[in-house]
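Q&A FORM
Asked by: J.P.
Topic: structure of NTP transferase domain-containing protein

PROVIDED:
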Amino acid sequence: MTAYDAIVLAGGAARRLGGADKPGLRIGGRALLDRVLAACGDAGTTVVVGGRRPTVRPVTWAREAPQGGGPLAALGAGVRHTAAERLLVLSADLPFLGADTVGSLLAAVGRDGLEGAVCTDQDGCDQPLVAVYRAEPLRRELALLAAEHGGLAGLPLRLLTHELRLSRVAADSLASFDCDTWEDIASARARIREHGLVLDEWITAVKNELAIEIDVDTAVLLDLARDAAHGVARPAAPLTTFLVGYAAAKASSDGGGPEAVAEAARKAAALALRWADETETP
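REPLIED BY: S.T.
REPLY: Here is the structure written out as tokens.
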């Protein structure tokens, strides 16, 4: 069973950021909120609790009452718009959260008797806003807390998590990294420019900007660009990859997909190698 709904908390005053619009801050050209939404793209319903803003995919908007009432109040507002048996709960400031971590949390909740699964950071501390909760016990505890305290505003998250039977999931070291300060923002921006991440980050950002949903084999395209640059001329590399993309788009309109890119790249690479062979033949 993979069905779940997602609740993303995108409110808060961001005091350590001087009141900046934290969910809208960009990491690698993408808003923090959009990066989080990408990690839960297969959710049945996605509820964002916070002020309305443009997003890369449709969401349901909600606001806590009173505004600025804290994460429990926001969670209570979001839950009212969901219907799935499992609820993924995330903060909107997780630049490196991936679908793999979401999958691990969902799988952990499937064990008998558990009421949720929470991600733990490198120090072993619970991250209750990187978690999956079963809807019934979550609703129950929220109702009990609201009745006991006259509402959920201002209450700490630990009052909720201490009452639930939770599994702990030690995810990737970056999965629970959140951005609370300008130093965090600078660190995240530097991190995505590291050699092992920058190409995937750039390709994802371009696909989002162009509203396309095709898988790109970067190795194939880089090999093609190398062959065109070495076998023909350096400016041939970007022009050739553009033409390959254009050809793949035409093929896709006839029912092709990612394989259309690979086939177009294969043909162009073979041509570049033939071109090089001619120049090297005495």
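FOLLOW-UP: Residues 69 and 153 are 4 Å apart (CA to CA).
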